[in-house]
Amino acid sequence: MPADSLDQVVSLCKRRGFIFPGSEIYGGLASTWDYGPLGTELKNRVKREWWNAFVRGRADIVGLDSAILMNPKVWEASGHVTSFNDPLVDCKGCKERFRGDKLLEEKLGVEAAAILKLDQVKSMLDAEEVHCPNCGKRDWTEAKQFNLMFETRQGAVKDDTNRLFLRPETAQGIFVNFRNVVQTQRLRLPFGIGQIGKAFRNEITPGNFTFRTREFEQMEIEYFVEPKDAESAFEEWRKVVWEWYLDLGIAEKRLRVREHGEKELSHYSSKTVDIEYQFPWGWGELFGLANRGDFDLTQHEKFSGEDLKYTDPDDPGKKLIPHVIEPSFGCDRTVLTFLLNAYTEEELPNGEVRTVMKFDKRLAPVDVAVLPLSKKDTLIEKAKELHKSLLSETTLAVDFDITGSIGKRYRRQDEIGTPLCITIDFGTIGEDAKQGEQDTVTIRYRDSLEQDRVPLGKVREKIAEYWRS
Ligand code: ATP
Question: The whole model's pTM is what?
Fold first, then answer.
C-alpha cells in the first residue's frame, strides 16, 4: 500500500532524518524545510542520476553553475519584472492571502481559471461562492498583481541603484552564458546546457510539504535547436523525461501529461506540457516542458546590445538565433515524489505490518547496513572490520548500527529503504554452528526479505551481483 496521506511521509521524514521543519528550535519559519542526513543523501542521488542521464551521459549537453544574483537587467529582458505575477486576493475576514487563480482552479479547473483577467477574479470568486479555506467566510478584496521575485540589496548602501533579485529560475543563467559556452566548448546545434541550482519565488500560498516552497531547487536544460527542429525535439524530450521517471521506479499509473491551454501559457512559451504526479491531494506539476522559441536570446540581444547569434561552423555566413526547448524539473518535487512513491506498508507472513521505503537502489540513501547480531565485543569487532573494508574499498554508503534488537534495526533499515543488510552473528565468529559456518554472514534483501548465507570473502561479489540485477 503506497502512502495515502502526506502526513505518513512527513512523519517518516522527520522520524528518520530525511526532512526537518526549517528553524525548528525558533518555532520554525513558514514553509521552509531542511534536508537531514538521509534526505541530503537522497537528494544528492537524485541530482547525480539527473546529471548522469542528461549532462555527463550525453555528448550533446554540457553543464553550468551560474550565480544566483544577476544584473537586474536580466529580469527586465526575461519579462519577469513585468510578467512574473500571480493574482493576489485577501480574505477580509481573517486577512489571509491567497492566489485567486488557484482558488478558482480548484472550483472550475485549470483551463477556466487561466482565461480570467485580473479584474474578473473577485467577481468570479463571488459568483462561484468560493469560501476562504482558512476561516470559511466569503468576503474577498479585488485581486492585485503580486510579483513573485524576492528582492535584496547588494553592498553597504541602501538605495534603489543596488536593488537585486534572487533568481526565480535557473534558466536565465544559461541564456546569459550562451555565447561564453558556445565559444569555449565549440558546440554545434542541436546542443543543450544543463544546470542544477536554487531558485526563489515569493509564493503567495506555499504548502503541501516540499511541493511548493519559496526556496527550492531546479534541474533545468535549455536545449538549442534549429527552428525547423523545435517540434521534433519537443516530442523527443517529452518521451525521454517520461522514461527517466519510470526507469527510477515511479509508478506509471500515477503519472500523466497535461498540455497547457493557450491562455495558460507563460509569456515566453508557445507550447508547454507538464508531467504531473498523482499526489495525495490530487494531480500536481512535477516537470514542465516548454517551447521557448527564440524569445530569451532575442530579448537578451535587445537589452544587452550584444550579438548572441549562433554561427554555423561549417558555413560562417549562416547566423541564427536558435530556438529553445526547455525541460525543467523541480528537484525538491522530484525528491518528494520519490519519497511518496517509495512509501509502502505491507503485511509480513507473520502478520506484522512493516513500513518500507522501496526506493530504486540507485536512490536509496544507504546502500548496505552492517549489523552485529548483539552487542558482544567479538561480534562488534568483526562487524567493524567488514564495515571499514566496505567503506574503504567501495563507493557504497554503508551504515553501521548496534542500537536496539536486530528486529528493530531491520525495521529502521526498511524505513529508510536500505536495499541490503548484512548480519554478523555467532556463526560468523565460530561460536554457534547452528547460526552458520564460521566466517559466513547473512545478507537480507529489503524487498524479497530473502536471506543468503555468504562467506565473508564473497560479500563484495554478492553486492556487485545485486547491483547488476
Ligand atoms: P506551479 O504551476 O506549480 O507554480 P510553475 O509552472 O510555475 O509551477 P515552472 O516555472 O515551470 O513552474 O518551474 C519548473 C519546475 O520547478 C516545476 O515543474 C516545479 O517542479 C518546480 N517548482 C516551481 N515552483 C516551485 C516551488 N514554489 N516549490 C518547489 N518547486 C517548484
Answer: 0.93
